[in-house]
């Protein structure tokens, strides 16, 4: 493990939502026990249905997550970036992987196996509480996404999903989402034409800047106002 990669992993985990309130020594032990994996754009970090347990933490780069839908389709359900956690620990959620995660760009991930988690827990049993915390947060985000699709009109739905990507995907403040308008529409149950129309209106009032394959968030408070309108 290169020292600069290790230092980056320590910084990202220390600032992540699920570990920022835990001892620095716990973060250091997770990095020590984990394995840094470099993946290229288009490579899979995990596949839905995999039996392998353990966690992947995104250290650098971004990924798209997909879930199987009726008709043999794979539907995009989220964007994940630095600080986000994939996978699960069987102690809290038995069964195979729930989503497929594909790198959008060259990415660096920290893989922590179930065996490694057990070793970490021998010194820091609170690691299980941290894992339960992010599992709960993922469930809450899934319910929020369902509520948005059911209750919000397209304009509000797009704003809410952009905000959720920042909040739940490991992104903060002004950030760039590596997602095409077509895939964003897939996440929202909307056509690309509808997404393009609303993003254009957001751009005119300074909320976002969209370009090929990405959307840059410029005004979080403004998007929040739209989502809640």
UniProtKB/TrEMBL annotation:
Which residue intervals define the domain HTH crp-type in the entry?
Answer: 152-221
One Pfam family matching this protein: HTH_Crp_2
Can you give the residue ranges of the Cyclic nucleotide-binding domain?
A: 18-129
Q: Which SMART domains match?
A: HTH_CRP
- A GO MF term: DNA binding
Record's keyword terms, sorted:
DNA-binding, Transcription, Transcription regulation
Superkingdom of source: Bacteria
Among CDD domains, the record links this protein to:
CAP_ED
Q: Which GO biological process annotations does it have?
A: regulation of DNA-templated transcription
| InterPro entries for this protein | cNMP-bd_dom, cNMP-bd_dom_sf, HTH_CRP, RmlC-like_jellyroll, WH-like_DNA-bd_sf, WH_DNA-bd_sf
Identification of the protein by name? Crp/Fnr family transcriptional regulator
Look up and give the organism this protein is from.
Sphingomonas lacunae
């Amino acid at each position: 493990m290169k020292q600069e990669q290790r230092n980056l992993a320590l910084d990202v985990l220390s600032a992540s939502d699920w570990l920022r309130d835990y001892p620095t020594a716990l973060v250091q032990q997770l990095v020590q026990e984990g394995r840094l994996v470099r993946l290229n754009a288009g490579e899979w970090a995990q596949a839905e249905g995999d039996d392998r347990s353990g966690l992947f933490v995104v250290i650098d780069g971004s990924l798209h997550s997909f879930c199987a839908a009726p008709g043999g389709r794979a539907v995009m359900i989220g964007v994940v970036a630095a600080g986000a956690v994939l996978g699960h620990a069987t102690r809290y959620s038995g069964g195979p992987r729930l989503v497929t995660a594909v790198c959008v760009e060259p990415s660096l991930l920290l893989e922590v196996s179930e065996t490694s988690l057990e070793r970490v827990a021998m010194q820091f049993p609170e690691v299980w509480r941290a894992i339960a915390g992010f599992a709960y947060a993922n469930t809450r985000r899934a319910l929020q996404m369902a509520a948005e699709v059911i209750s919000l009109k397209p304009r509000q739905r797009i704003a809410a999903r952009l905000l959720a990507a920042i909040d739940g995907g490991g992104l903060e403040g002004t950030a760039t989402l590596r997602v095409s308008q077509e895939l964003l529409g897939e996440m929202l149950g909307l056509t690309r034409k509808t997404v393009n129309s609303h993003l254009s209106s957001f751009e005119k009032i300074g909320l976002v800047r969209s370009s090929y394959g990405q959307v840059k968030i410029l005004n979080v408070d403004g998007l929040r106002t739209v989502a809640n309108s």
